[in-house]
Amino acid sequence: MSKSCALLGAQIETGASQRGCQMGPASLRTAGLLETLNALEWSAEDFGDVTIGTTKEMPHENAAVHNLAETVAWIEVLNEAAFKAAQEVDVPIFMGGDHSIAAGTVPAMAKRAAGQGRPLFVLWLDAHPDLHTLDTTESGNLHGTPVAYFTGQAGCEAYPVLSHAVDISNICMMGIRSVDRAEERRIIDLGVEVHDMRSIDETGVLAPLRAFLERVREADGMLHVSFDVDFLDPGIAPAVGTTVPGGATFREAHLIMETLCDSGLVTSLDLVELNPFLDERGRTAKLMCDLTASLFGRRVLDRMTRSFG
Predict the structure, then answer these.
(1) Residue 180 known to be catalytic
(2) Structural domain tally of the chain?
(3) CATH number (domain holding residue 135)
(4) Active-site residue, selected from the candidate residues 70, 98, 126, 290
């Protein structure tokens, strides 16, 4: 029986430092994401983009924080829309926009999982842990706060009240290579599972990924994958405003996505921080589509090239 998925976009960039990622959903559509999924024999739909209305300014004790009212509005709208999408299809795909989208999508997926009596696990593929609270962020860019928020950390009280938090022990971070001091302390204090690029260089991606997936399977968990473009090395994915050298290679990224596909555990997906204004002829958007295709079942033999030898 054909499985179903759907695209849901959020043109949010108020959490980021550079403009342009609000065009991310349109870029993924232009690169053919919907057609790619349908070609893989998924029943794929496009649910369009969510929007927010006019907001009033929300001051915060941390003067660095900006666009708080807009971010709160996005969280509220996304929580409702993401949960609704998850009731209609097997695997909803949430397209950002900046990574503050996860402050809306992940709690919605936690609510979905709780409704089925199952825990939610999160695979966080990102150069950054995004574990700042509104109190500790120095840049005030709120795309650095979603993990702290959806795991129920103190310091996020200005955000909407969580109905279902994600257990911090159910999170696995891979690709981390840019961590602020406050986030480092929080990682240590909370015991977050983090595989930075040095550990990946030492062990490869498969060992930690397979161990995490086994934990998800043993718990009968649902798995949300949150994929930030800056998880990838900027040499292959330049379309991101927060480039950090030394990211995942083309081969590592495809191996992760194919392994996730093989597991059959993924129940929702974020694709975030794609800024086509910084791209090179759609190069990054096409790569994100290809990686998503690997997650949804495409293999090398599905795209064989002709030999001219």
Answers:
(1) no
(2) 1
(3) 3.40.800.10
(4) 126
